[in-house]
Write a structure and sequence with these properties.
By secondary structure, the protein is of the alpha+beta class. The chain has helices spanning 132-147, 174-182, 195-212, 216-220, 225-259, 292-311, 344-373, 384-394, 446-453, 535-544; strands at 47-54, 69-73, 76-78, 80-86, 106-108, 120-126, 155-160, 164-171, 266-272, 314-320, 398-403, 411-421, 427-429, 433-437, 466-471, 480-486, 494-495, 501-513, 524-533, 546-552, 557-567, 573-582. The longest helix is centred in the middle third of the chain and has 35 residues, at 225-259.
């Protein structure tokens, strides 16, 4: 098969495909001289809702049945098509068995083994939204939690800087997670100022103005120089907050793609000092600095990410790393943080009022994120390790209900979900709705999407489930072989009138060095898998997977082989990271 053109200056090698999964292998199939067969697509949309039920004492309620649940969408009752209870008792939980040795260099982007709790957990250490001093405290609490990791849990560790990075894939090993977390070093974020820093700056402005006095001409021209500086600082903070929000939204989208191959609930434990994003019905077009077109585009992107979070059953647990907060003026500031406030006591009141309002806005945003996604928010606690443990335990005892929406008008409007349980004295936590967008493929080119997903440090995408086996060079063959299997249950097929299943998959294998620098022309192998499967071939693919054989020439050294597959029809992806040592 002819290799596809990828990027200028990159080395391309042919891709070889096994068996009857390619179009040429199906050439002998009888062809009709009539008009082309009509393509039939079968799609069923289910809305999954994970419900945590607590009694009046806050304890998780177990043993409920499907008949106990009633679900409504926009006030209209919906028939429950699927129901399941997930129960996890931390006191009796047992540690997961030790992982098997990685014999033969085999890899998978979704492990076959399940979890004892029925859910998986993502721990996000947010550096871009957290000042340096708060990072240091949060890191210590995170290590405390990981060293006493509850058994039977699968956790992946992510860090957010300029973009999302996965520093440890899903594992139940406390040692591996502690080792990865220990390597994280706190570093200042250029996009956020701490409350103390803002107090100090305002204090400096007040002292400066008191020293030079007010100028009538300056007042006539729109205020003193210090008041103009303060306005510039406010604008600067607003621009940085917008930048942080965009980085955060992209990170959430990456998290959704990275965990989409895992069935069931995912708990996102978000350690941060600021939570600059919104989900659900609370998104508003209220940014006066943006044009109407820019606002719509930004909100649309946020809503798409919110839908990803909802459809992938991600419950967000925002954890405020600033600990117990009260109305105070830190030792770094005199409290005279209101320009031209006059008496110091009045300035102190203004400073305290400002911190009070800021804290309330932050908590409201945290509560909204948790409420809309079915998680729980934690603030005003110095025991972040306890909050992490509580989030995992509560996020592992839940009921899953699913329904097919009666309203088939996918007009992009927000739809409210309401769940009730026929048991008195209970409170429910669940996601509160979704945006009714029609399923549409991304407008971006499949090659561009796949290339971006295979960049160094990018978390694996698990929408398409992959497993691969690497065979290193030996006297019989000088190249490195990569034999992969694609799970056909994650591929969207079209079916023609003859019962043949059709799909087109773009595949790419690229060899990156195991270092911070990459060659200008990394070795790679790319091509298109054209699937035309009759009933027998499709049944065989369901049992064995869709096989892909690739060969790549590599000098001796350490590499991270990045294998990716993109469904060209809908841009769904799967990627896999494989560290290997050639000639070592």
């Amino acid at each position: 098969m002819r290799a596809m053109s990828w990027a200028a200056g990159m080395l391309l090698l042919p891709v070889m495909i096994w068996g009857q999964t390619t179009a040429p292998a199906q050439a002998s199939a009888p062809q009709s001289s009539a008009a082309p067969a009509t393509t039939i697509r079968v799609a069923t949309r289910l809305v999954y809702v994970d419900v945590v039920v607590r009694d009046s004492s806050g304890r998780c309620v177990r043993g409920l049945k499907q008949a106990d649940f009633k679900v409504a969408e926009d006030g209209k009752p919906q028939a429950v098509d699927f129901f399941n209870e997930h129960s996890y008792d931390l006191a009796s939980a047992k540690a997961a068995p030790a992982a098997k040795a990685n014999a033969g260099l085999t890899f998978a982007n979704v492990p076959e083994d399940g979890t004892a709790s029925g859910s998986i957990n993502m721990l996000l250490f947010d550096m871009v939204n957290t000042p340096l001093t708060d990072q240091q405290f949060a890191r210590g609490q995170m290590l405390k939690f990981l060293k006493a990791l509850p058994p039977g849990q699968q956790i992946a560790l992510f860090v957010l800087t300029d973009r999302l990075h996965m520093v440890q894939s899903f594992t139940g090993s406390s040692d591996l997670l502690v080792q990865a977390a220990d390597l994280l070093k706190a570093k200042p974020s250029e996009l956020i100022r701490s409350q103390s820093e803002m107090m100090q700056t305002s204090d400096i402005y007040s002292r400066w103005e008191a020293a030079i006095g007010r100028s009538p001409s300056a007042e006539a021209d729109g205020g003193s120089i210090t008041s103009r500086w303060a306005k510039e600082d406010t604008l600067y903070d607003a621009v940085n907050a917008d930048t942080r929000a965009r980085i955060t939204i992209l990170a959430f989208a990456d998290l959704a793609h990275a965990t989409s191959g895992y069935s069931g609930r995912k708990n996102l434990l978000w350690l941060s000092a600021s939570f600059p994003t919104a989900v659900g019905a609370y998104m508003q077009l209220d940014n006066p600095a943006m044009s109407a077109a820019e606002q719509i585009g930004d909100i649309e992107g946020s809503r798409e990410t919110a839908n990803l979070i909802a459809s992938m059953q991600i419950a967000v647990y925002p954890i405020n790393v600033m600990g117990v907060q009260t109305d105070f003026v830190g030792a770094q500031s005199s409290g005279d943080s209101s320009v031209g406030a006059g008496a110091s006591s009045a300035a102190m009141v203004n400073t305290m009022r400002g911190t009070f309002n800021t804290r309330n806005v932050l908590r409201n945003n945290m509560d909204n994120i948790a409420h809309q996604t079915g998680g729980e928010s934690f603030y005003s606690t110095n025991d972040l390790a306890w909050a992490l443990r509580r989030g995992i335990e509560d996020g592992s005892n839940f009921y899953t209900v699913a329904y097919r929406p009666q309203n088939q008008n996918w007009n992009g409007a927000f739809r409210n979900i309401h769940v009730v349980v026929d048991k008195k004295g209970t409170s429910l936590t669940y996601r509160r709705g979704y945006y009714a967008y029609a399923d549409q493929p991304s407008a971006n080119d499949a090659q561009e999407i796949l290339h971006r997903a295979l960049q160094p440090g990018t978390p694996d995408s698990t929408v398409l489930r992959l497993n691969s086996r690497v065979t290193l060079p030996d006297p019989k063959h000088a190249t490195t072989w990569v034999d992969s299997r694609i799970d056909p249950r994650t591929v969207e097929f079209s079916v023609d009138a003859n019962g043949h299943h059709h799909a087109q998959l773009l595949v790419l294998l690229i060899a990156l060095t195991d270092s911070t620098t990459q060659p200008a022309q990394p070795p790679q192998s790319a091509g298109v898998v054209n699937l035309d499967l009759d009933q027998d071939a499709f049944a065989d693919a369901l049992k064995r997977g869709i096989p892909v054989h690739q060969e790549i020439t590599l000098p001796a050294g350490k590499y991270r082989l990045r294998f990716g597959v993109c469904d060209i029809e809908n841009r769904r992806m799967g990627t896999l990271d494989m560290p290997v040592n050639v000639g070592g």
